[in-house]
Design brief:
There is one protein chain. The protein has 80 residues and is an all-alpha fold. The chain is 71% helix and 0% strand. The radius of gyration is 17 Å and the shape is elongated.
Amino acid sequence: MILVLETALGCTTQEAAEATNDLISSRMQQFEHTVFTELPILFDQHGLRPDERMAALVYAADCRTGSRVGTSGTCAPAGT
């Protein structure tokens, strides 16, 4: 990603690295906001049982740590 930004934006490696860090940090904050703020609301709206809520939170935690990231770079469903 650093090389892509460096080339596309015509910036230095350091500038591209800083931009990459900023982008990743922003995405992680957005992800955490969704998990901790928006998911509980959705859980309530859809009447999820405690075990279903836990399964969704475990899945989100796995996505955050990258343990379920598929070859496309997205969080893959369990078992893939």
